[in-house]
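BUG: 3D viewer hangs when loading the predicted structure for this chain

Environment: internal workstation, default settings.
Expected: structure renders.
Actual: progress bar stalls at 90%.

Input used:
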Amino acid sequence: MEFMMWATRSMHIFSALVWLGGLLYMGGILYPVFRYEQLTTSIQYIRIERRFTGFIWMCVWTSAITGVLLMLFSPRFVFGQYRSEWDELLLLKEFLYVLMVGVAISGTSIVKKMESIAASAQADRTHDDLMKQHQKMLRRRRTNLALGIITLLVSTRMVVL
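Structure tokens produced before the viewer hung:
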């Protein structure tokens, strides 16, 4: 049983770090390059966003499943009782996670909208519409990154307790 907990904890941490690492890569490396090359409305950019969305959902499901398993098998966890600081931090972490998933869902809908805009035949309007969607996507990614960093800090505090 100890090996299962170790493996589950490792997968949970890995999925969280991959998710945040992907957000950092997109925001810190890829977006600036696309912006400099003025390709933020290109079909290549939209394809990268589509691929990254799948990557995000892989991490979301992995962290959700492993998080629930870790919670249920933790000797500290008692369902519905929040008596200690650890319990309150767990509740905060769950709330932050739900917010992150909501932002990811919103980002997925933006990518779908970008694909439909790019497929439309109105070339003069397409660029402006794609720029608006790109700005929305940047805000979502920054929000998700901030929530992820806060979640990591909360998790770190939980480990110390």
